[in-house]
Amino acid sequence: MSEKTVIAFHETAEQAAALQKVIENHKGQDGALIPVLHEAQEIYGYLPIEVQQKISEGLGVTMAEIYGVVTFYTQFSTQPKGEFKIGVCLGTACYVKGSGDILEKIKEKLGIDVNECTPDGKFSIDATRCIGACGLAPVMTINDDVYGRLVPEDIEGILAKYM
Amino acid sequence: MEMVNIKINGEAISVPSNYTILQAARQAGIDIPTLCYLKGINEIGACRMCLVEVKGAKGLVTACVYPVNEGMEVLTNTERVRSARKTVLELTLSNHEKKCLTCPRNQNCELQRLSDELGVTDIPFEGETIQREIDASSPSIVRDNNKCILCRRCVSVCKKVQTVGVIDAKERGFITQIGCTFDKPLNDTDCVMCGQCIIACPVGALYEKDSTKDVWAALADESKHVVVQTAPAVRVALGEEFGMPIGSRVTGKMVTALRKLGFDKVFDTNFAADLTIMEEGTELLGRIKDGGKFPMITSCSPGWVKFCEHNFPDLLENLSTAKSPHEMYGAIIKSYYAEKAGIDPKDIYVVSVMPCTAKKFESEREELAGTGYPDVDAVLTTRELAKMIKEARIDFTKLADTGFDHPFGEEASGAGVIFGATGGVMEAALRTVSEVLTGKSFDEIEYNAVRGTEGIKEATVTIGDLDVKVAVASGLGNARALLEKVQKGEADYHFIEIMACPGGCVTGGGQPIQPAKVRAEIDLKAERAKAIYDEDRSLKVRKSHENPYIKQLYAEYLGEPCGHKSHKLLHTHYTARPRLK
Q: Which of B208, B233, B250 is the last residue of a domain?
């Protein structure tokens, strides 16, 4: 999985206009970058290079600095999220109960890495911190569905429900 | 400034209230080690090398950012402080690639020096290491993150001083590294290759792309006539590489060393600087007479030219079309000189020794091939020349002085030499333009208004009945500020000189690297510039248009400045470039 799965960028006129408005609202403010990134991610679902370039030009912040901030915080993503967002908890309890193996199995089944999205736009994988369901460890979520006490053999059947 | 009284190691001192502990200690002659600190550029307390004890404070504090206050008692040399600093250093070393023997910064590395000074005898932390890919995509600069200690000195100089900002810290924690947006190679960004990051780096994480191998190979090739030229700023800094004091003028020794290395001819780029003044000055006079595009902006600094192509494409028409001096020289060597010496230009190999890393990129520009061959075949930095001299076992400090070779360069003008300092191109141009415009000869030729190390200088110079408004900027942040004024219509200069590096070529990215501690005490750009102006004063001819060989070149070959032949050989054009590939 060394080659990154790259999804082509598409934007609607509404998205472009919304981002422009966000940039104008924050322009000239100290610390404008992080709120703009949050709102941009709301608009596009993620922060690809094309969006970061618009923010860079709009706010006068260098591309390298923006990329630094985006890669520093795990809630920002440079990859789109799927229709079904899979979250595998790597908190301490889940991890010692084998969530690492669960994650490996999902990556293998979908052919993508953490923070990536399948080319058909269906699934994306996030490695999350503790989601507060330690009693069910190891835990994964798919959108709002929670699956607990998992073993790697469960994965195929669970994913099949969303295919 | 209000003063406060503090005690350092029991010694009472009085210092300005806006001082940090580090500044106060240095005033008192007390040494505190630093690593990420670079005066005026990077003062962020990141590396924790400068830890000291402050009585009453909870933990140890970082002296480089901690402000003094009345009654403060500081201890810099307790067991607790020494042990904490040593542990910090050992941790920094734990995932540093410790290949000192083969490192480009061997024996000029701040990390290596600290390991010695702090008495590190082994590295107790054998932790995880990450193997990073070396980025050698750029024709000028190599980035090796295996050596990087994340001090951010390069990031700060690139972003804050140069306003280029193509590198920054990305990711977090143990996997943090310095790099470009979306992990792009440096060459795919709007890096201008000025090399200020290299001279800011305390270790071997940044260095120039090596050209010494190519030059050694050319020197060994008997079919090649290998000609070398040296930029003005090289002669006032090269001595530092051999332990000579900052500001030493080593012109004669440098020429002797180049001959001993085996170059067939040793020419002086100052001659081409004189040629640049003839062409650029004539271009300026033409714009004044015919109402051309103003302000006209100098084009000698390839870092600046690339910056303009990326950031100010609307000002490209304002750039002088004159090539930079060493490129002009290359074209003249492969045409006029080749003809005169009866050598086929294909057999001539031109090496430029430059204080600059951007010149390596410049020499690869396809349009800079006035004779059909590249004007310049290889560019060495001042540091690379020093390495070659050392490798050849030449005892530099003991060399006798010799002069540059005929037919040109033996007596270049003082106007040519001052190209090495900020304001120098402007002053050289004014010396010539004033006399050509008025037809008179002036004795008063030192234009002090454009001298000095300030980032932006402005002056109005009266020449005959014309008020010529000029401005000089060095450092790209200053250039950006000045040009934004021009774009907004807030300034109406006739002529602007811009050099990419703060202070001009004397502190270029290819110059000898002085550690942060020396840079905190000595203003390199002022010391080296002083040597440049001393050199100017020592020369018989101080105006470009009075250089007899320049007159001869025009009479025998070029005809007139900005004439047909000049346009073919000595002028160029520019291209708008995208920010990212």
A: B208
